[in-house]
Design brief:
With 303 residues, the protein is α/β, with parallel strands linked by helices. The protein has 2 domains: 216 residues, P-loop containing nucleotide triphosphate hydrolases (Rossmann fold); 77 residues, Alpha-L RNA-binding motif (Alpha-Beta Plaits, 2-Layer Sandwich), CATH 3.30.70. Helix content is 35%, strand content 28%. The strands form 3 sheets. It has a 6-stranded mixed beta sheet with strand order 6-7-8-3-9-10, sandwiched between helices. α3 crosses α4 and α5 packs parallel to α6. The longest helix is centred in the middle third of the chain and has 14 residues. It is elongated and about 75 Å long. The two termini are 34 Å apart. Bound molecules: adenosine-5'-diphosphate (ADP) and magnesium ion. Adenosine-5'-diphosphate (ADP) binds next to α1.
């Protein structure tokens, strides 16, 4: 187990920022830590990395207790804090040398060059950090988190404030890092998590409200999907009603239909066969699963 959080607790005065949460992340997993602003993501991450103490519970990183083995565990953790504090007057390579020095990285020259290549900073490595775009500043933050080759990466909202192209680029870097590291990254954006990882832990008001794979979450309670079909021509409802495994069918306008089913693949195949047999033209064919957005909203709605 790379990260194990048990009954973790943090209060700020009367406010319970993190309320007795437990979860774990296996070696090599990329897990999204999702929740609205103020949910307790950053506070949890600060406790995992040992930057703040908890008021109760325990965190283990690579099977060592963070509370008793802070230095030992910090060596195994790369942390990109939410604000990504950087020295704007330093050059990229100079800053990474400085960070490598703090971590006492052996063969630091090689480590720095490898890290620069990994995060895609090669062309910017001789610039001052202050001259870089926000996306490249974020790469510098990632490089600083990676320089000592940690087993576990904790990334707090790594794409927040970036433009759409930069977001895609940083996601690609994170996916690449996830190939040989354990990654826990936070986000308040659902699509983000969908684009990067399979499993998601959803936190709301300091409590874990879901911990599952995206596909399981999408299956929902009754595992029902909706297949939307639009033909170029009018098609009789009776013709479509002959298909197997339809739970319900709604006639939208005589050529578009909404089909409720627990077997969307089968329905799609049958629709294609039907259109070939009857010489019909399909304009569009889509299936919708339980929307993740709806699930996220229902799990994190103010109560
Ligand atoms: P997230 O990262 O999910 O947006 P945080 O972990 O930053 O959430 O915050 C969780 C809650 O704890 C919020 O209500 C926030 O206002 C509160 N909080 C965070 N840091 C402090 C602090 N240093 N002092 C007081 N309250 C804090
Ligand atoms: Mg935060």
């Amino acid at each position: 187990m790379s990260i194990k959080v048990v009954n973790l607790l943090k209060n700020y005065g009367a406010q319970k920022a993190v309320n007795n949460i437990s979860f774990s992340v296996d070696k090599g997993e990329i897990v999204g830590f999702l929740g609205p602003n103020g949910a307790g993501k950053s506070t949890t991450m600060k406790m995992i990395t040992g930057y703040i103490a908890c008021d109760g519970g325990e965190v283990e990183v690579c099977n060592e207790k963070v509370s008793t083995d802070t230095l030992q565990t910090k060596r195994k953790i790369g942390y990109l804090p939410e604000a990504n504090p950087l020295y704007f007057d330093m050059y990229v390579r100079e800053y990474l040398e400085f960070v490598a020095g703090i971590h006492q990285v052996k063969n630091s020259k090689t480590a720095i060059e490898e890290t620069i290549a990994t995060v895609g900073l090669t062309l910017e490595a001789n610039k001052k950090i202050g001259q870089l775009s926000k996306g490249y500043k974020q790469r510098v933050g990632l490089a600083a988190a990676l320089i000592h080759n940690p087993e576990v990466l904790i990334l707090d909202e790594p794409t927040s404030g970036l433009d759409p192209n930069q977001i895609v680029e940083i996601r690609e870097v994170i996916k690449k890092l996830g190939k040989d590291k354990t990654v826990l990254f936070s986000s308040h954006i659902l699509q983000e998590v969908q684009a990067i990882c399979d499993r998601v832990i959803i936190i709301n008001r300091g409590n874990i409200v879901a911990d599952d794979t995206l596909s399981n979450l999408q299956k929902g309670k009754d595992n029902e999907h909706i297949v939307l079909i639009q033909f170029k021509e009018k098609v009789a409802l009776e013709t479509l009603k002959q298909l197997a495994r339809i739970d319900d069918i709604i006639d939208v306008d005589g050529s578009s239909y909404k089909i409720h089913t627990t077997h969307p693949e089968s329905i799609r195949k049958q629709l294609i066969e039907l259109s070939l047999k009857n010489n019909l033209n399909i304009v569009s064919l889509q299936s919708e699963s339980n929307s993740l957005e709806a699930i996220f909203k229902s799990l994190t709605a103010a109560k």
